[in-house]
Amino acid sequence: MCLPLIAQVLSVDERGAEIRLLEGQVTTVNAILEPDVKRGEYVLVDRGMIIEIVAAEQVQEMLDFYTELTNMYAAEDTANA
After folding, report:
1. Residue whose C-alpha is closest to residue 59's, from 4, 5, 6
2. Residue 4: how many CB atoms within 10 A of its CB?
3. I want to staple 44 with a disulfide (CB 3.0 to 4.6 A). Which of 37, 52, 64, 80 is the partner?
4. Number of compact structural domains in the chain
5. What is the pLDDT of residues 34-67, one digit of tens each?
6. What pLDDT, on the 0 to 100 scale, is given for residue 74?
C-alpha cells in the first residue's frame, strides 16, 4: 500500500511547486492537479504530484493515522514471524 507524503509548499511557479517533506527533504513537484496551491500550505504528494491541499489542523491527525498504521503493520509482521 502506498500512502501519500505530507509536505509544506515553499514556493510555486509555472513549472510546479517546491516543497519540504516533513522529514526535511526539499524537492520540486508538479502542481497541475492543484493549480491554486499557495506558499505555506500543506499538501499531499504522490508520485511527484500534489494531489490534495490539506488544512493545517488536519496534518497532526494524518500523522497520527500513519503512526497507527505503522504500528499495526509492525505488530502483524511480528505475529507472522
Report:
1. 6
2. 17
3. 52
4. 1
5. 999 999 999 999 999 999 999 988 988 888 887 8
6. 84
Partners of 30 in beta bridges: 49
The DSSP symbol for 15 reads T
**Bridge partners for 45 per DSSP:** 5, 50
Full residue range of the structural domain in which residue 54 is found:
5-80
Q: For residue 38, give the CATH number of its domain.
A: 2.30.30.140
| Side chain identity, residue 51 | I
